[in-house]
């Protein structure tokens, strides 16, 4: 990809994020995106089919960047370190995550995809000891619960530290899994 193409994609991404602050993706037209980015529509269509396609690319880039950031964690670190690193990444990119996890209510699938990706990777740290047929349900529970906590944290303007929130998420997940284990016996 050449420099002009990278710049065009960056301008479109920034334009989309700016517009998502004000409205849902279903209300954003290609014409509006192009006007905001200062490019013509034919250039837009060289790269994306529509606004949803651009959004999908932005979402995937966020997931890829998050994974790349989290890959820096040492294999011998624990689950809390992984969660803390993820929360610090959210806080560093607070404007982006506030829009993507809170403002865009049509975007619920992205939130769950992002957290599911993070939790699937954290499995190497947590080593969830649940039967294989229960893992899908366990992850659904952990994803939805963690997402609600993170959204509340963002809404409350990061009222508690990343460390405190990581401890809370980890202890809630750990307690839930321990309760599950004790109910099996």
From TrEMBL:
This is HTH tetR-type domain-containing protein. Residues 29-48 bind DNA. Keywords: DNA-binding. Residues 6-66 form the HTH tetR-type domain. Coiled coil: none annotated. The keyword DNA-binding applies. It comes from Paenibacillus odorifer. One of its GO terms (molecular function) is DNA binding. It holds the Pfam family TetR_C_8.
């Amino acid at each position: 990809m050449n420099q002009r193409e990278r710049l065009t994609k960056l301008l479109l991404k920034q334009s989309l994020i700016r517009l998502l602050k004000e409205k849902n993706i279903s209300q954003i037209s290609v014409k509006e995106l192009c006007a905001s980015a200062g490019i013509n529509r034919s250039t837009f269509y060289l790269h994306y089919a529509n606004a949803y396609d651009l959004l999908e690319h932005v979402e995937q880039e966020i997931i890829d960047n998050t994974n790349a950031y989290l890959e820096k964690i040492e294999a011998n670190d624990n689950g809390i370190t992984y969660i803390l690193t993820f929360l610090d990444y959210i806080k560093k990119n607070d404007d982006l995550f506030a829009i993507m996890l809170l403002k865009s209510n049509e975007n619920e699938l992205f939130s769950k995809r992002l957290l599911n990706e993070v939790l699937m990777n954290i499995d190497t740290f947590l080593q969830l000891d649940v039967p294989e047929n229960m893992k899908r349900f366990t992850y659904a529970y952990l994803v939805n619960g963690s997402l609600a906590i993170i959204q509340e944290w963002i809404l409350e303007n990061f009222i508690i530290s990343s460390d405190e929130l990581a401890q809370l998420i980890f202890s809630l997940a750990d307690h839930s899994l321990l309760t599950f284990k004790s109910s099996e016996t």
